[in-house]
Amino acid sequence: MRYPVILILIFFVLTISLPLNGLPLPSEKEKKFDAYLNEFRNSIKFSSMINPSSDSAKREKKKFFDFRVQGRRYEPQFEYTRLSSKAVKNYRLINQEKLKNTIYSDLLTESFEINKLKMFLIQMRGRPAIFTLFGSRLYPLPSRKEIARAENFLASIKEKSISQKNFGSQKMKAILTKALEEKDLKHWQVIISNQMSANASVLPGSRKIKVRESAKFDELDAKRLIVHEIGVHACRAERGHKMPLKIFSTGLKGYLETEEGMAACNEFRNGIKTGLRLFALRLLAVHWASIGSFSEVFKKLIDHGATEEEAWKISQRVKRGLTDTGKKGCYPKDALYFKGFLKINSELKKDIHLWKRLMKYGKIGINHLPRLEILDHMTNLK
User: Fold this and answer.
1) Taking the domains of the chain in order of start, what are their residue ranges?
2) What pLDDT shows up at residue 97?
3) What is the pTM of this model?
4) Alpha carbon distances (Å) from 129 to 91, 100, 330, 354
5) What confidence score (pLDDT) does residue 174 get?
6) Over 200-221, what HEC string results?
């Protein structure tokens, strides 16, 4: 990404701005825009709105497997919670703000564009073609090369089965809470939720880790979530909270592919291959969902070694956002986990200091490093 005007202005602004954690202080206008942006992002409630309602997901899962027992095919029909009027109001409010030619204006603007796209995506639920189009602008569909890499990886590993899950969400909450304490992440807490597709996820802005209420875990899951959710997601978010603006803790454009790639690499470095196997399956499922139905995705996952429960979860993830899942179309986010791993793993081989650099500024993409390191270096020179 190029910032021609911004980089020229840096020399002048740094002479009047005091450094904060290596970066210059934002202007009052930038802080105001950042606050509006944070309110807009919170009002969208994207992580829950993109998923089917809890009752809908449970009902459709039962119908799907009842039909399956009978040897019949059924395509789940999902229902969703409506977007709040507050989100639309906040969008109109922040859309009136003009922010040009300041140190952080490009970063703030790109963060606004991402959240605007997320709001539009929520509004397009139930319209498969346009929903997939908007979704692919947030998270590009996998390329042929990436699809082949995922297929090859799955063919190369032996562990196809899933171990016995012997404890539930409450014990996992206790394990993660202890891990947060050991990392000195004292502002963080673990909560139980019944409206999420993943077994666990991080809410960076509010410093929370969510665990799915009905999920079952084993000891390997616990190790994986500690190195993935806490070792990367929570630690990068906490670093972002120490940066000059909230966008560093909630995420800049492209940060998610970088961060999920880091999390996958962290698992791999700790000898955990189950996560990478799952990410390869998810990437393939995104591809299959973009051209086929829910039941077709489910069958292909079973053919690739997934259990029925695993196949349901992945199929629901890639088909969320659709009401009639018998139609082709997908939510492409799940492709970026394996895509991110391929990219970050390759870059880490070229730069032994890359991991430390990526952990320094919060939830940024690898593409943001040159810009931020210039700001950092020039501030320190001052």
Assistant:
1) 4-160+274-339
2) 86
3) 0.87
4) 24, 34, 9, 38
5) 96
6) EEEECCCCEEEEECCCCECHHH
